[in-house]
Design brief:
heterodimer; A: alpha/beta; Rossmann fold; 2 domains; seven-stranded mixed beta sheet; five-stranded mixed beta sheet; 14 helices; 12 strands; 43% helix; globular; B: alpha+beta; Dna Ligase, domain 1; 3 domains; nine-stranded mixed beta sheet; six-stranded mixed beta sheet; 16 helices; 26% helix
C-alpha cells in the first residue's frame, strides 16, 4: 500500500472499497471494516532532563480483532498523525489475515523525535504510553511491537511497565524483545527470508531456476540484507544494491556485473545500512546514483527500502528483462505504476504478502512468550517457511482462478477472512 | 552402466510431497547426492526400466520414498555454524555430536523438512550418503551413522525436532573418531569428504509399539564362505526378522545360497540349529523412548524376542516349528513348539517368491555394474501372501582374480606363523612387519570393550605412521555382542592389512558375519583368517619373543625383524603367514 504524506487512511479505505466490491460485501460489513474498532488518543506528560515538563501525544488504534488479539507496532515519529496510524492498523489486519495467523490489526505511535530525546526521556515516553493503555492492551487483547524508530530496548521498558501495573510477568504482552529476554530466534531474519520464500515460490511456478536469475535491490537494511543472503543461498545473484548515505543525505547504487559479494559489502557497511563509497570502488563496484537500481538488466527487482519508489516517474525505467517484483518494503509501488507494471506482464508479489514474515515471526514470538518455552531457530524458520509458502500458494491460486492481480487476490483473501470472522461472531 | 553417472540432474527437486506417486525420489538442494543416494537413484532407474525381469504378481520391488539433502546444505551448515574447528579437533565423539546439535540448519532446508513431517507420520530412516560412501574401492560401509526415528508424535513440531536432531546426528558422524581413522586409512582427509543425507521411509508394518519389516536381508552375488554344494559365484543371502541392523552388525541371521534355497542348513543337529538361529530382532520403537539421547543411533530402536513376533503374527512366513515328538522341523507356525527363524515358508514352500526375486535382483545388478554386487533390502508382507521388497542399497564387491598357489610343501617350511583354511581375500604380500595382538594370557571376554579401545590406540598410531600391520584377536572382530568378540568399529582397525580372528575355549564362536565389516574388508583388500584353537594354532611363542613396540593391559604391539610373508589362495580359501626364520 502506498502511503503518501497526504492522507494514508483515505488511501487505505479506497483500497478496501475496491476489494469490498470484488467480494460484494454488505454495507454493514463495509462500514465496520472501513473504520477502526477502537482508537485511543492520549497525552503522555514527561519530566525532561532539563527540569521542565513536556506533554507528548500518543495513539493506539485497534482496527479489528475479530480473528484474534490485535497486533501492530509502535512508531515514534515527529510527523505522526492519527490517520497514518489508522491506515497502518487496517493494513496490519489484512497482513495478519493473508498469512492466516490468528491476530487482528493495530498500530500505535507517539509524536516525538527520538533523535532529540535522551534515553531516559524515551524511557519515560514508553512507560507513559503503557500507563495510558495498560488496561486496553495485553497478551490476549493487543500486542505491540517495534516499528519506526523504536527498538527492542523500547519494548523492554514497555514490558516492564506493563508487568509492574499488572503485578505479574507477561512476556507475551509485546514482541520484538531481545533473544534471551523473551525474544524469538529467527525474528531478525524473518522479514527478509519471508520475501525470498515467496520469491522462490514465484520462480518455481514460472519454471525458472533461481540459479538462472539476477536481482537488483533497493535498500541495504535488515530486510534487504537477509533477503539477499537467502536469495544467494538458493542460487540467485544480486547485481546491484542501493543504500542511503547518511553523510551525503542521498542514496547510491552499488553495482557489480558478475554479482555482489554480500559479506564483502557488509564489511564496509555502517550500522544504518550505509555503504562506504570509496571502499566499494576499491573493491570493484560501480557507484551509481541511488535510483539506478531500478534500471538494471535483471530478472528480479526487490524494493526493500521506502514507499512510493516505483511510481509514475520511475516505472518507465524498469529494466526490460525484469520478470518479478518482490515488494520487501511497505507500499513501494504506487497504484498508477501498478497498472503499468501489469501491462508489461511483470509479476508482482505484493508487499503485505511478501514482507509478512516479520509479523509471522512476531506471532511465533508471542506464542513462545505466552508459553514461556522457546523454540530453536530451525523450528521458527521452518514454521515461517511453511506459513509464507502456504500464504503465497493460496494467493497465487486465487489470482489465477479469478484472473486477479496478486495484490487484489491477497486483499480478497485477507478481507474475506476478516469479514467472515466478523459475521461468525455475529457482529454484522 | 555405472552408478557414478547418476547425479542431481536426474533427480527432481522436492516439491513438499514425500509420497507423491509421480516423484518418490527427490532432492533438496543443488549439491552432490553422495554415493548411497546415487546408488539408489541408479537402482530406481534400473528397476523401472527392467521391471519385466522381476515380475511376480505378489512381490513388488521398489526403492522406498526418499528425499536426498545434497552436500551444499551440509557445507552451509558447517560454515554458518563454524563447526569445522570442533569437528576436526580431537574432541570426544559425543562432544562433537553435541556441538552439531546446537547448530542451526540452513534456512532453505528447514521449510522443506517441516513440510515433510507435516505430511508423514510413519517412521523415517535418516541415512548418510557421503561423497566417498559406496565408491568401488573405498566403500565406507557402515562408517557413518543411520538414525531411524518413529516420526509418529501427534505434534508436527515434535516430529520436526526429532528429524532435525537425526539429521545433525548423521552429519556429526562424519567426524567421529572411527570415521576419521577410516578416512586416513583411505588416504583421504575430512576436507575431501562431504555429506549428503537420504531421508527414507522405513519399510515395515506397525504392531503396537513395534514397527519393523517382516524380513530384512543382505544378498551378495559372491560368497566368500560357501558350504555344501554351493559355489562362491552362486552368491549368498542373509535374512533376518526385523530391521537389517541384525545382519549388518553381524548378529545371528539365516544364511542360504540363492541357488540352493532348500539345501539343508549346515547344522549338526536340531539343537545346533535352535542354538544358532535368530532369537531377537530389532524394531523401531513407536512408544516413549527409553531415554532422550539424540546422539545415540539406537535412541528409537528396541530389541525384542520372538515372543513379540509371535504375538504380532509375523512368524507365519518366516519361521519353522520344532516338533519335539516327531523330532522334526515343520515349516510355518501351524504346530506348537520352538520357533526357528529359517524362512522355510518362503524358501522351501515358496509361499512367497522372495528367493527368485532376490536372484533376479543380484543377476540384474551384477550384469549392469559388471561386478559382483551386494544388495540390502527390507520386505513388508501382506496382505496375505503378498510382499513389498524395498530396495535399500547396492554396492559393487571386490573379488580378486589373481591366481595364488599355496602348496602343501610350503606349509612345511620353517617360520609358519599361522595357517587357516577359512580365509577371505586373495593374493600375496611381504610388506607387513608390525603385529598387534590381543594377549591370550590376559584376554577376558568380559572386557572386550576395553580391548577395543586399546586396539584403537594402536591402530591410530600405526595409521598416523602409515604402517600396515597384522591384527590378531579372539572371537569376532566387530561383533555387536561384546561376549562374542571384540566390538570394534571398522574405523578402529582400518589400518590393518591382515586380520586374524581365533577362537579360544572360552570364546568358541563362529567367524565374523557382519556385512558392513566384510564389505570393508574385501574392499580394502584386507586378508582375513579365521582360526580355530582346536585345530592349528598360532605360533604364540614366536610372537612373545618379538621386539615390543608398545603394550597395554590386553594388547601388545611387536615388530618383526623382517617383513612377514603372507599368501592367500582365494579359490581354495586357504592362507598362511610366515615369518623369516632366525637363520634366514
Amino acid at each position: 500500500m502506498a502511503l503518501t504524506p497526504h492522507n494514508a487512511f483515505e488511501m487505505a479505505q479506497a483500497r478496501f472499497d475496491h476489494v469490498a466490491k470484488l467480494l460484494q460485501l454488505d454495507a454493514a460489513t463495509c462500514e465496520l471494516l472501513r473504520q477502526p474498532l477502537r482508537e485511543y488518543s492520549f497525552a503522555i506528560p514527561v519530566h525532561m532532563d532539563d527540569g521542565h515538563s513536556r506533554v507528548f501525544r500518543g495513539f493506539r488504534v485497534q482496527h479489528n480483532d475479530a480473528r484474534g488479539p490485535s497486533k501492530g507496532g509502535i512508531r515514534f515519529h515527529p510527523l505522526e498523525t492519527l490517520d497514518t496510524v489508522r491506515a497502518l492498523a487496517m493494513w496490519m489486519t489484512w497482513k495478519c489475515a493473508v498469512v492466516d495467523i490468528p491476530l487482528g490489526g493495530a498500530k500505535g505511535g507517539v509524536i516525538c523525535d527520538p533523535h532529540q530525546l535522551s534515553l531516559r526521556e524515551q524511557e519515560q515516553i514508553c512507560r507513559g504510553w503503557v500507563r495510558q493503555v495498560a488496561r486496553n492492551v495485553g497478551p490476549t487483547a493487543d500486542i505491540p511491537a517495534p516499528d519506526v524508530m523504536t527498538s527492542a530496548q523500547h519494548m523492554l521498558w514497555m514490558l516492564d511497565e506493563f508487568e509492574v501495573i499488572h503485578g505479574s510477568r507477561a512476556p507475551g504482552f509485546i514482541t520484538g524483545k531481545p533473544v534471551g529476554m523473551g525474544g524469538s530466534m529467527g525474528r531478525v531474519e524473518a522479514t527478509g527470508f519471508g520475501v525470498v520464500f515467496t520469491l522462490r515460490e514465484a520462480l518455481k511456478e514460472r519454471g525458472i531456476r533461481a540459479a538462472d536469475t539476477t536481482a537488483s535491490v533497493q535498500g541495504f537494511g535488515n530486510v534487504a540484507q537477509h533477503a539477499i543472503r537467502l536469495y544467494h543461498q538458493i542460487g540467485g545473484r544480486t547485481l546491484c544494491v542501493s543504500a542511503w548515505d547518511q553523510t551525503d543525505q542521498t542514496a547510491y547504487a552499488f553495482r557489480k556485473r558478475d554479482g555482489i559479494d554480500l559479506d564483502q559489502l557488509l564489511s564496509i557497511t555502517d550500522r544504518f545500512g550505509g555503504i562506504d563509497k570509496g571502499k566499494a570502488r576499491d573493491l570493484g563496484y560501480d557507484v551509481l546514483p541511488g535510483d539506478a537500481w531500478i534500471e538494471q538488466d535483471v530478472d528480479i527487482l526487490l524494493p526493500a527500502a521506502l514507499e512510493n519508489q516505483i511510481n509514475e516517474e520511475t516505472m518507465e525505467r524498469i529494466g526490460a528483462g525484469v520478470k518479478i517484483i518482490a515488494e520487501g518494503a511497505n507500499g513501494p509501488t504506487t497504484p498508477v505504476a501498478d497498472e503499468t507494471i501489469a501491462r508489461r506482464g511483470i509479476f508482482v508479489i505484493p508487499d503485505f504478502l511478501a514482507n509478512a514474515g516479520g509479523v509471522t515471526a512476531s506471532y511465533f514470538e508471542q506464542v513462545q512468550s505466552n508459553s514461556n518455552y522457546y523454540w530453536t531457530r530451525d523450528d521458527v524458520l521452518g514454521r515461517l517457511d511453511i506459513k509464507m509458502t502456504a500464504a503465497y500458494v493460496a494467493v497465487s491460486e486465487l489470482a489465477q482462478k479469478r484472473k486477479l492481480s496478486m495484490r487484489d487476490a491477497a486483499y480478497v483473501i485477507a478481507v474475506d477472512r476478516v469479514a467472515r470472522a466478523c459475521k461468525d461472531r455475529g457482529w454484522v | 552402466m555405472s552408478v557414478g553417472g547418476f547425479g542431481k540432474q536426474e533427480l527432481a527437486a522436492f516439491d513438499r510431497a514425500f509420497f507423491d506417486p509421480r516423484q518418490r525420489f527427490t532432492r533438496i538442494g543443488d549439491g552432490e547426492l553422495g554415493g548411497k543416494a546415487r546408488g539408489l537413484l541408479f537402482a530406481a532407474d534400473l528397476l523401472a526400466r527392467e521391471s519385466q525381469l522381476l515380475v511376480d504378481p505378489n512381490v513388488v520391488v521398489d526403492v522406498p520414498a526418499s528425499t536426498v539433502i545434497t552436500t551444499d546444505l551440509f557445507d552451509r551448515f558447517m560454515q554458518a555454524n563454524g563447526l569445522y574447528d570442533v569437528a576436526l579437533s580431537d574432541s570426544a565423539d559425543d562432544r562433537i555430536a553435541h556441538a552439531f546439535q546446537k547448530g542451526d540448519l540452513p534456512v532453505e532446508l528447514v521449510g522443506d523438512l517441516r513440510a515433510l513431517v507435516e505430511q508423514v507420520t510413519t517412521p523415517l530412516a535418516v541415512r548418510s550418503s557421503s561423497l566417498l560412501e559406496d565408491a568401488l574401492f573405498r566403500p565406507f560401509a557402515g562408517v557413518y551413522q543411520t538414525k531411524m526415528i518413529p516420526n509418529n508424535q501427534s505434534d508436527a513440531g515434535d516430529r520436526f525436532t526429532k528429524l532435525v536432531e537425526a539429521l545433525k546426528f548423521v552429519y556429526a558422524s562424519m567426524f567421529a573418531r572411527g570415521a576419521k581413522n577410516y578416512l586416513q586409512a583411505s588416504g583421504k582427509t575430512p576436507r575431501d569428504e562431504k555429506m549428503a543425507v537420504v531421508i527414507q521411509e522405513v519399510i515395515g508394518t506397525r504392531h503396537d509399539s513395534r514397527f519393523y519389516p517382516d524380513v530384512s536381508g543382505v544378498a551378495k552375488s559372491f560368497n566368500f564362505y560357501p558350504t555344501g554344494n554351493a559355489r562362491p559365484e552362486e552368491g549368498v543371502v542373509h535374512l533376518a526378522l526385523g530391521l537389517g541392523k541384525t545382519i549388518v552388525d553381524g548378529g545371528v541371521s539365516w544364511t542360504h545360497s540363492p541357488a540352493h534355497p532348500r539345501a539343508p542348513a549346515p547344522f549338526a543337529s536340531v539343537r545346533d540349529m535352535l542354538d544358532h538361529s535368530q532369537l531377537e530382532f530389532w524394531v523401531v520403537h513407536m512408544g516413549k523412548p527409553a531415554a532422550f539421547d539424540p546422539i545415540a543411533e539406537t535412541e528409537y530402536l528396541a530389541k525384542h524376542d520372538l515372543g513379540a513376533a509371535e504375538y504380532d503374527g509375523t512368524l507365519r512366513y518366516t519361521c519353522s516349528t520344532y516338533d519335539a515328538a516327531a523330532d522334526r522341523i515343520v515349516p510355518g507356525t501351524g504346530t506348537r513348539g520352538a520357533r526357528i527363524l529359517n524362512f522355510a515358508p518362503m524358501l522351501d514352500l515358496e509361499e512367497i517368491a522372495l528367493n527368485p526375486v532376490i536372484r533376479a535382483l543380484l543377476d540384474l545388478f551384477a550384469r549392469e555394474l559388471a561386478s559382483p554386487v551386494e544388495i540390502e533390502f527390507a520386505v513388508a508382507l501382506g496382505p496375505g501372501p503378498r510382499a513389498r521388497l524395498g530396495f535399500l542399497q547396492v554396492r559393487p564387491m571386490v573379488v580378486s582374480e589373481d591366481v595364488v598357489q599355496l602348496d602343501e610343501s610350503e606349509l612345511q617350511q620353517p617360520g609358519l606363523l599361522l595357517f587357516s583354511d577359512n580365509v577371505m581375500g586373495n593374493g600375496s604380500s611381504d610388506s607387513i612387519q608390525d603385529i598387534v595382538f590381543v594377549k591370550p594370557k590376559t584376554f577376558d571376554k568380559g572386557r572386550t570393550r576395553q580391548i577395543a579401545g586399546e586396539v584403537d590406540q594402536f591402530n591410530r598410531t600405526l595409521l598416523d605412521a602409515g604402517t600396515p600391520y597384522l591384527l590378531l584377536g579372539f572371537g569376532r572382530w566387530g561383533s555387536a555382542d561384546p561376549f562374542l568378540g571384540i566390538p570394534v568399529e571398522w574405523g578402529q582397525i582400518c589400518g590393518a592389512s591382515a586380520i586374524v580372528e581365533s577362537t579360544l575355549p572360552e570364546m568358541n564362536v563362529d567367524p565374523s558375519q557382519g556385512s558392513h565389516f566384510f564389505h570393508n574388508m574385501s574392499s580394502f583388500r584386507v586378508s582375513y583368517f579365521a582360526m580355530h584353537h582346536a585345530q592349528r594354532d598360532i605360533d604364540w611363542e614366536w610372537l612373545e619373543r618379538q621386539e615390543q613396540v608398545g603394550e597395554t593391559e590386553h594388547v601388545r604391539h611387536v615388530r618383526a625383524p623382517k617383513p612377514l610373508r603372507l599368501k592367500v589362495d582365494g579359490r581354495s580359501r586357504r592362507g598362511a603367514i610366515w615369518y623369516a626364520p632366525a637363520n634366514s
